[in-house]
């Protein structure tokens, strides 16, 4: 059993590695679905900086470029055959296969740099934090993985089984690099024993009336679906409008979707989550949460009333995010469209979701077109050796936190690996307050220096146990 790192050692770890992460934050590796908005030289510069910042990793691990800017490192294990990356990795003597640690280094755009306390791409290090776009999502995790490996190599450590680092370059646009990396491993006959990507965190204030931080580990994630609603009409001059034109009919469909949410239920993973955190709740609530399996219906209704994240945990959600109509202020629309961004709950499918949309809208003149979609991810087990390893590592590095499984509401690159691994989990080993979580994709994204150090210690302990 590894000893728990002290706050001082975590702070020291973070302080020593902070300049490395700060350097990585200076590269504008912004993802966009519009190729002209990308800056390929910034991605190349980011990749070129890694050998300078992590020389032992660069010397000891094999690196392949995947799908252009994706990075796939292989750290050969002592129980695996020393061979080229094309060789299938052998299983270590204890029966474990290779492990894959994931992160991505692309970031979302900055809307207004003037609203930031520090320039978003300056990589500023303060007394307590590392400031910049990508610090939490997700360059912090990438830097923590590489720094942990750098320190282990300096200590002479070698893993028993192969460890892969898969670093994506287009996660923010739901790109295909992670899928290409998974396909590459599949072609080589490599089936990982464990895959760990971003997702949950050591979250404070994440559940009402529970004071202890929760180490939420994603065991699945909702499907992501974009559906275009469209209405065609004859159009004409705005001075002579007809009743129920394209925009009015579309608006009625949008209102119907808003007024009739999908049915709610509390999935088994959420029941287990509630039961696990019950021990940290005050006594009256502890009895309720501890009996979540028997009070599923009542808890489902309570979660729905709480709104926000608790409500989203219970159902498929629909958010109309884009509306388009006429191009002229005095012209009736001949075509009006809306984009519905939908997060498909575990247990539902893309097909069943579209079918329910049609039944809610109840208008054959509103056409539905699936723009892009993927099914919810399979649910990884919580009673296996892989989850037990994550729990043990969490308890070692975050002794005050309660490890709990949950279903991620957002999407990650990890879903691309579920076809080659049955044990895919989503957990970023960083403490995050509600304010920290709110800064992701928003202004003033930052990672605390001590928090960064705790993340390095986590990855170091996890890799040391593989």
Automatic annotation (TrEMBL):
InterPro entries named among the record's database cross-references: Bact_exopeptidase_dim_dom, Pept_M20A, Peptidase_M20, Peptidase_M20_dimer
Source organism, top-level taxon: Bacteria
Alphabetical list of Pfam families matching this protein: M20_dimer (PF07687), Peptidase_M20 (PF01546)
Residue stretches making up the Peptidase M20 dimerisation domain: 220-365
Keywords: Hydrolase, Metal-binding, Protease, Zinc
Cross-referenced PANTHER family: N-FATTY-ACYL-AMINO ACID SYNTHASE/HYDROLASE PM20D1, N-FATTY-ACYL-AMINO ACID SYNTHASE_HYDROLASE PM20D1
Protein name, per record: M20/M25/M40 family metallo-hydrolase
Organism: Arthrobacter jinronghuae
């Amino acid at each position: 059993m590894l000893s728990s790192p002290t706050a001082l050692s975590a702070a020291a770890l973070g302080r020593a590695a902070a300049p490395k992460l700060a350097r990585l934050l200076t590269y504008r590796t912004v993802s966009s679905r519009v190729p002209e908005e990308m800056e390929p030289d910034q991605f190349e510069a980011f990749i070129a900086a890694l050998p300078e910042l992590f020389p032992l990793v660069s010397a000891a691990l094999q690196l392949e470029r995947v799908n252009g800017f994706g990075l796939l490192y292989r750290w050969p294990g002592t129980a695996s055959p020393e061979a080229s990356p094309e060789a299938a990795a052998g299983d270590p003597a204890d029966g474990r296969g290779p492990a894959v640690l994931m992160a991505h280094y692309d970031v979302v755009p900055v809307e207004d740099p003037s609203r930031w306390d520090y320039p978003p791409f300056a990589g500023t290090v303060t007394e307590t934090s590392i400031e910049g776009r990508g610090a939490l999502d997700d360059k912090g995790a990438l830097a923590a993985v590489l720094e942990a490996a750098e320190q282990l190599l300096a200590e002479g450590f070698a893993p028993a089984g192969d460890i892969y680092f898969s670093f994506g370059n287009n996660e923010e646009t739901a790109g295909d690099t992670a899928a290409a990396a998974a396909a590459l491993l599949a072609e080589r006959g490599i089936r990982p024993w464990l895959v760990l990507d971003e997702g949950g965190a050591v979250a404070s204030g994440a559940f009402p009336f529970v004071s202890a931080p929760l180490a939420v580990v994603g065991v699945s994630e909702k499907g992501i679906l974009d559906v275009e609603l469209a209405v065609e009409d004859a159009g004409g001059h705005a001075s002579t409008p007809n009743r129920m034109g394209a925009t009015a009919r579309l608006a009625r469909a949008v209102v119907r979707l808003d007024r009739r949410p999908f049915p709610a239920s509390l999935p088994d993973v959420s029941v287990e989550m509630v039961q696990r955190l019950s021990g940290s709740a005050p006594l009256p609530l502890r009895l309720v949460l501890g009996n979540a399996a028997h009070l599923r219906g009542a808890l489902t209704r309570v979660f729905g009333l709480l709104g926000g994240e608790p409500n989203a945990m219970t159902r498929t959600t629909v958010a109309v995010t884009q509306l388009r109509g006429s191009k002229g202020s005095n012209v009736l629309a001949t075509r009006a469209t809306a984009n519905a961004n939908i997060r498909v709950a575990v247990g539902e499918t893309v097909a069943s979701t579209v079918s329910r949309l049609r039944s809610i809208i109840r208008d054959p003149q509103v056409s539905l077109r699936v723009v892009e979609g993927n099914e919810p991810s399979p649910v990884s087990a919580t009673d296996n050796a892989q989850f037990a390893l994550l729990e043990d590592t969490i308890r070692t590095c975050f002794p005050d936190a309660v490890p709990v499984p949950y279903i991620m509401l957002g999407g990650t690159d990890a879903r691309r690996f579920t076809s080659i691994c049955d044990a895919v989990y989503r957990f970023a080993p960083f403490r995050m307050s509600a304010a920290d979580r709110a800064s992701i994709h928003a202004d003033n994204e930052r990672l605390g220096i001590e928090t960064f150090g705790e993340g390095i210690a986590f990855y170091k302990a996890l890799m040391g146990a593989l």
